[in-house]
Amino acid sequence: MKFTKMNGLGNDFIVFENLDNEEYDYDILARKLCDRHFGIGADGLLIVEPSGIADIKMRIINSDGSEAEMCGNGARCFAKYVYENGIVKKDKMSVETLSGIIMPELIFKDDVVEKVKVHMGSPIFRTDMIPVKTDKKSFIEETIKIDGRTYIVTSLLVGVPHTIIFVNSIDKNMILNIGPLIEKLQIFPRGTNVDFVKVEDDSNITVRTWERGAGLTFACGTGACASAVASALTEKTKRNVYVHFKKGDLYIEWLLDNNIYLTGIAEEVFTGEIKIV
User: Is residue 73 part of an annotated ligand binding site?
Assistant: First the structure.
C-alpha cells in the first residue's frame, strides 16, 4: 500500500487512496498502521474515496480503529493531498464527511499550498444532538463531578462532540488523568473529546485536547473551533481568536451567521509503501 504521512500542527495522519472502493478492515488497519512502534505511527487514517454528492469523500479512522465524523486538522491535510496529487484540481472543493459536506479552500504562496481554510459548519448546542444525557436543552457552564471533584464544563457539537473545561494553566497530568474519564462518562453516550482551555486575552486562547479514540494529541481542529465558540459564548473572548497549540496556531472565525471557519497549515512529512499482511 502506498501512503503519505501528513500533519496539521503535529496532529498526524496516514493518507491513502481507495478510489476503487476496495474492501479493507479499517479497524485492524488503523491499529496496525498507527502504532508508533510497530507501524508508521499516526493519530489516525485519512482515506480518499469517491463521492456521489461532493468532489471527493474523506473517511477518518482513529488510531483505536473507531471512525470519526469530522476532523479539522485532517480536513486541511486531506484537501492539500487531493489537490497536489491531481485528484481534485480546485482551490475550493466540496468534501463529503460523516458529519456532512465541508468546503476547504486552499491558500497559496508562490503557487504552493501554504494554508487551508475550512468551512466547519455551525456549532450545535442541543443536548439531544451532541448528545448529552440530560433533561436540559443545552449543556453550557454545567457542573460534573469526577472522583469527588467538581468541574464546570460546556458541551457542543462541531462535527464531533466536544466538552470544554477552562483552566488557569495547562497541566499535562490533569489532561491525562481527567480527559479519559470525561470522555467516557455515562452522560456522553457517544463519548466526547475533552478540551482544556486557557484564555490568554480576548483574542488568544491556548488549547490541549484529549481526543476521543486517539488520546492526547498535539492539536485538534474541531477542538479549536469548539473551544473558540465556548470562549466567546461565555464572554471570555471575542468571536474570532487565535488558538495556540504546541506546534503552532489556528485562526478560528465564528461569524454572526453562526458559521465557523478554521485556517491553518498542513504539511506533508514523507511518502512510502507498506506491506499489508
Answer: yes
